[in-house]
Design a protein that fits this description.
alpha/beta, 6-stranded mixed β-sheet, 4-stranded antiparallel β-sheet, 23% strand
């Protein structure tokens, strides 16, 4: 067995007397597309937020490639190869699509006073390299023709593609996707799925929160279900389809 790329151990988060996530332990297999399902309020987004560094756990730990990353901020995790997208995209709406992507890479030389003043040649070379990379990613995400459009003028589905494009600027090993198919028309959903699967073939690991059960059952392995902050199921899509608890609560009993 290879070491998991991402490991959660006893991850817990309390909000006052309410326990949103209760001692979750989970290994994410390198190269997998893991589907995270469960009803609203099950703790899925809270779990994501702890893994992604936007919320500190009450207790427990998160490891990436065997290194403890518990409580590190999201920008530090981005530079270590862990990226996430949001259910509701958060672009800088007045900036161009291309500039939104160019903002993603951390620790650029030109962002420091020393770099801006004394390393102008290096800054220019880095800017050119990043611009070429951003345009290549936008082409891959089918957004190349929209590169100079204000991000606020593109469709909601295209904003989901833009979210993933921004994540790709960090060359992530693991991407956390929060409901990527929500509110996206079928054509753009197919594009998004194709890009996810192509990236996965290239070695990127995905963990996906999704309420679209057809999406999960077709494209995720394994499937993990949360309820009341705890894991209540973990297995393949085929096992999920015949699990009595999931049939009752999430998938709908067969007629």
């Amino acid at each position: 067995m290879t070491e998991p790329v991402l490991s959660l151990r006893g991850l817990t988060r309390d909000f006052g007397p309410f326990r949103a996530v209760d001692s979750v332990s989970l290994d994410i297999r390198r190269g997998s597309i893991t589907g995270l399902i469960g009803p609203n309020g099950a703790g899925k987004t809270t779990l994501f937020n702890m893994v992604a560094g936007t919320l500190k756990p009450t207790s427990g730990s998160v490891s990436l490639n065997g290194q403890n990353i518990t409580g590190l901020p999201s920008e530090a995790l981005f530079s270590r190869g862990l990226a996430r997208t949001f259910q509701i995209p958060r672009p800088f709406r007045r900036m161009s699509v291309l500039d939104n992507v160019l903002l993603a890479p951390p620790a650029q030389v030109g962002e420091t006073v020393v770099g801006a003043l004394f390393r102008r040649g290096r800054v220019a070379a880095e800017e050119a390299r990043l611009r070429d990379k951003a345009r290549a990613i936008l082409d891959f995400m089918t957004l190349g023709k929209l590169a100079d459009q204000p991000a606020g003028k593109i469709s909601g589905g295209q904003m989901k593609l833009l979210e993933l494009a921004r994540a790709l600027m960090g060359d992530p090993a693991v991407i956390l996707l929060d409901e990527p198919a929500a509110g996206v028309n079928p054509s753009l959903t197919r594009t998004l799925i194709e890009r996810i699967e192509e990236l996965n073939r290239q070695g990127t690991t995905f963990v996906i929160i999704e309420h679209d059960m057809d999406f999960v059952m077709r494209h995720c392995d394994p499937v993990v279900a949360l309820a009341e902050g705890r894991i209540v199921f973990q297995g393949t899509a085929d096992e999920a389809r015949v699990n009595p608890l999931l049939l009752d609560a999430y998938l709908g009993a067969p007629t």
